[in-house]
Design a protein that fits this description.
Elements lengths: L1 E2 L15 H30 L13 H8 L7 E3 L5 H7 L4 H8 L39 E2 L11 H15 L17 E6 L6 H13 L3 E6 L3 E2 L2 E2 H4 L5 H4 L13 E6 L3 H18 L3 E6 L19 H9 L2 H11 L5 H43 L6 H8 L6 H14 L6 H21 L27 E3 H15 L3 E5 L15 H5 L4 E3 L4 H13 L3 E5 L10 H8 L2 H4 L9 E6 L12 H7 L4 E3 L4 H11 L6 E6 L6 E3 L15 E4 L4 E5 L3 H14 L4 E5 L2 E3 L6 H9 L2 E4 L7 H12 L11 E3 L10 H7 L3 H15 L9
Parallel strand pairs: 1-8, 2-3, 2-4, 4-5, 5-9, 8-9, 11-12, 11-13, 13-14, 14-16, 15-16, 19-20, 19-22, 22-23
Antiparallel strand pairs: 6-7, 10-17, 15-21, 18-20
Helix pairs in contact: 1-3, 1-4, 1-11, 1-12, 2-3, 2-9, 4-12, 5-6, 5-18, 12-13, 12-14, 12-15, 13-14, 16-22, 18-19, 23-27
Protein name: 3-methyl-2-oxobutanoate dehydrogenase (2-methylpropanoyl-transferring)
Function: E1 component of the 2-oxoglutarate dehydrogenase (OGDH) complex which catalyzes the decarboxylation of 2-oxoglutarate, the first step in the conversion of 2-oxoglutarate to succinyl-CoA and CO(2).
EC number: 1.2.4.4
Length: 805
């Protein structure tokens, strides 16, 4: 482990640069540090005066971040967190103006270039897409994955971002993708707080990075605390670099390089980062830079005060070892600058920050003022005393907000019910138009919505030859993947047991031998890192299939899936996308730990992903064909008990496409519409045969996708005939079946077509015990479907269908 305490940065050798140029660079760095500190102090004031909602800032870490930015090159990537404002300023991916615009939550993407007002301050992002959703040239800009607040969450995607460089370096067939890499020389720079190194995702990712030898430099900003919890409680030996010594690379092993440097030592920081970046860029060796003796002058956030938990001695030390103050002292002691010169610089910096803060506030205010002025004018035109209170409220607002504007407009509309006038009609028309605008401000871009959206891909039917082969379902999948890997060099697949044995159910059998270990490979048991790997690869133009061995194990990766992938398009207002396909298998598993259908969790946590639930492997193959030609992330859940069931092999196995979000009627009937998906669909089909013997005809709808659900409203069309609805699945009660019910009854207005109570049949609330008997008594069986369907018909006409029990 290197413990760098040098006082001279090799970048500044006099043989390379004149003293005047050297001095100009140093003073520019110091000025940026001062500006960033003033922005932090001003930001806190804006929150405490009520002009902003909440604030987290990067004060105390300015000098280290400026040194880090010096080795960052166009094409490189940042995966950081909410303490990186100085880093962002130094890279040029944000500015003081953008910083305050985000603090005020300006919904204009030109003001808050990172998120259009959707993320709290200090959550940075660079635009990777043009307005049509096409990739920009990543090699010509400095790139930043969109930040998330989840502590340690920025670690997972580091795997994919760095692995992309490795693949671009080693796979010459990717050389045509010039927008994404210069043959793999890009480095990923990850930042994380010392306390967050206690998170499991940190260790998962670091271990995987060491195994794969990806080009990443991980900076640990160590200010001694995690909110109020000191290092002694957070970390063994109270020192993360000490704990990591076992990862140290030795004798050409696949470990990491570790550096330790003080956060106020500007020359040493520059030297360390130059050395770490060289290891990562030239040798693809992952590095950890442990930056110690940092401070956090304003505490964790605007929600509290660090004086509550830091001792007087600690606070005194922080004052003395403030990184900006230490750099200032160094400038004076080394003769690089004089006192008056620094005072002038600091005064100019303060005025500049104040000027940019005012400009950001004025622009935000202008955005609000347009809507406020229009609302006041429209309410003033209505000559009715009813509008007096909302009108005067709007006229008296000292600090307007869109919430206040529209709350008062909506109040006026309610109060004017039953009153008709042309002026009211104008107000209503304006409000309707503004609803669309506000949807764009606060709700759009959950998905990419580009021309490559899977929802814009037409279906292509599977074609079968006369002498069609009847094969195991797994063979259909295998042929599908084979064809797609031949078609598109960008596709890679990975997961536990995916490479050598071709996955536990043989969907990739033999494909690693054909396409090589760079494209199809095994991973360790680390679900968060697997999903993060997919996110990073997709951000860099590749088409990953990230396999999670069983559906239950997806829960281990939920923070990465939910907090990062699912909301990526939304939180960047459509300026970033990561079209990852997550492949897994589930349904009809037996046993407490393999219950197989946590669909409630997925539907609640993964809005922003398409959730596909194919009934067999042919439908799954058609969905993969569609998704691999599209640009949005998706989860495909294959039926575990379907791999060895016999299916026809399509002649166009790599080209036919199943449209996403389109339900399918797979059995025509007259009495009850039954909606199901996945493994329970076969249960319903068996039950339909039994019910025919009892004089009951089921019409069966395969949902095929849960998100989106039944875009062509086949369920409603079926209800127009049967007027009865039963939803069957094996999720917990109140889960996916309730979601489907809400979609049909509320969104499709199916409620008005019913002539009986709609019913759901799901698994029991307990997890299923092990064995087939346990499965029978805890998940929907053929008998359960038969009896519930019969009960529904008995309630409708008991004379024809007398009660069974």
């Amino acid at each position: 482990m290197s413990n760098i305490t040098m006082n001279i940065n090799s970048d500044f050798e006099t043989s390379k640069i004149s003293f005047d140029d050297f001095r100009e660079i140093i003073l520019k760095d110091y000025r940026l540090a001062v500006e960033s500190r003033i922005a932090s102090l001003s930001g806190r004031k804006e929150v405490l005066t009520g002009k902003a909602k909440f604030g987290v800032f990067g004060d105390g870490k300015e000098i280290a971040q400026i040194a880090l930015a010096k080795v960052f090159q166009p094409g490189d990537w940042r995966s950081g967190y909410y303490r990186d404002q100085t880093f962002a300023f130094a890279l040029g991916i944000s500015s003081i103006y953008h910083f305050f615009s985000q603090l005020y939550a300006n919904p204009d993407l030109e003001a808050d270039i990172s998120s259009g007002g959707r993320q709290m301050n200090c959550h940075f992002s660079t635009q990777l897409l043009d307005k049509e959703g096409n990739w920009l040239n990543q090699t010509e800009q400095k790139n930043s994955a969109s930040d998330i607040s989840t502590t340690g969450g920025q670690m997972a995607r580091v795997m994919g971002l760095g692995l992309a460089s490795k693949l671009y370096k080693e796979n010459r067939n990717l050389d045509y993708l010039t927008y994404f890499s210069r043959q793999g020389r890009e480095v990923v720079f990850c930042t994380i707080g010392n306390a967050s190194t206690s998170e499991g995702v940190f260790w998962e990712t670091l271990n995987a990075a060491a195994v794969k030898q990806i080009p990443v430099v991980i900076s640990v900003w160590d200010d001694g605390y995690g909110i109020s919890v000191p290092n002694e409680v957070q970390t063994a030996k109270a020192d993360i670099s000490e704990v990591l010594k076992g990862f140290q690379r030795e004798n050409d092993s696949n470990g990491i390089e570790i550096f330790k440097v003080r956060g106020w030592d500007y020359p040493a920081l520059c030297e360390v980062y130059e050395q770490a970046a060289r290891y990562a860029r030239e040798e693809h060796v992952p590095c950890v830079v442990h930056v110690t003796e940092l401070t956090q002058p304003q505490g964790h956030s605007t929600s509290g005060s660090h004086e509550r938990y830091k001792s007087a001695e600690r606070l005194e030390w922080e004052d003395a070892f403030d990184c900006n103050l230490k750099m200032r002292d160094w400038l004076l002691q080394s003769g690089i600058a004089q006192e008056e010169e620094l005072k002038d610089l600091e005064k100019e910096a303060k005025e500049f920050v104040r000027q940019e803060q005012r400009r950001a506030w004025a622009d935000y205010h202008k955005t609000l003022q347009v809507d406020l002025d229009e609302a006041i004018a429209l309410l003033s035109d209505i000559e009715n005393p009813i509008t007096e209170v909302p009108l005067k409220t709007l006229q008296s607002l000292a600090e307007p907000s869109l919430k206040e504007v529209y709350a008062n407009v909506r109040r006026a509309i309610r109060d004017l019910r039953g009153i008709y006038s042309s002026e009211k009609d104008v107000l209503m028309a304006w409000y309707t138009q503004k609803q669309e605008q506000n949807f764009g401000r606060y709700n759009d871009k959950l998905f990419s919505e580009t021309l490559d959206s899977p929802l814009k891909k037409d279906g292509i039917s599977a074609h079968y030859e006369e002498d069609v082969s009847i094969v195991d379902g797994r063979e259909v999948l295998n042929a599908c993947f084979d064809a797609n890997f031949r078609r598109d060099e960008r596709i890679v697949a990975f997961g536990e047991d995916v490479g050598k044995i071709g996955d536990v159910n043989q969907g990739f059998a033999g494909l690693q031998e054909q396409f090589g270990e760079l494209r199809i490979f095994d991973t360790g048991i680390r679900e968060s890192a697997i999903i993060g790997k997919g996110i990073g690869l997709a951000l860099r133009g590749l088409r990953p299939i990230a396999e999670i061995q069983y559906l239950d194990y997806l829960i281990y990766a939920m923070p990465v899936l939910s907090d990062d992938l699912a909301c990526l398009s939304y939180r960047t207002k459509g300026t970033q996308k990561a079209p990852v396909i997550i492949r897994t298998r589930g349904h009809r598993l037996e046993g407490i730990w393999h219950s197989g259908s946590p669909m409630t969790v997925l539907l609640g946590g993964l809005r922003g992903l398409h959730i596909c639930v194919p009934r067999n492997m042919t439908q799954a193959a058609g969905m993969y064909n569609t998704l691999l030609r599209s640009d949005e992330p998706a989860l495909v859940i294959e039926c575990l008990n379907g791999y060895r069931l016999k299916e026809k092999m399509p002649a166009n196995v790599g080209d036919f496409m199943v449209p996403i979000g389109i339900a399918e009627q797979i059995r025509e009937g007259r009495d009850i519409t039954v909606v199901s998906y996945g493994a329970t669909l076969r249960v319903v089909q068996e039950a339909a045969i039994e019910l025919e013997k009892l004089g009951i005809s089921l019409e069966i709808i395969d949902a095929q996708c849960l998100q989106p659900f039944d875009r062509t409203e086949i369920c409603r069309q079926s209800l127009e005939k049967t007027n009865k609805l039963l939803v069957v699945d094996e999720d917990m009660p109140g889960g996916a079946a309730a979601f489907i019910m809400q979609e049909i009854l509320e969104k499709q207005n199916g409620y008005y077509l019913l002539d009986g109570q709609p019913r759901t049949l799901s698994a029991k609330p307990n997890r299923p015990p092990y064995g087939s008997d346990g499965d029978y008594f805890t998940k929907p069986s053929v008998d359960d479907v038969v009896e519930l369907a019969y009960e529904m018909m008995s309630e409708y006409n008991e004379s024809v269908f007398p009660r069974l029990f």
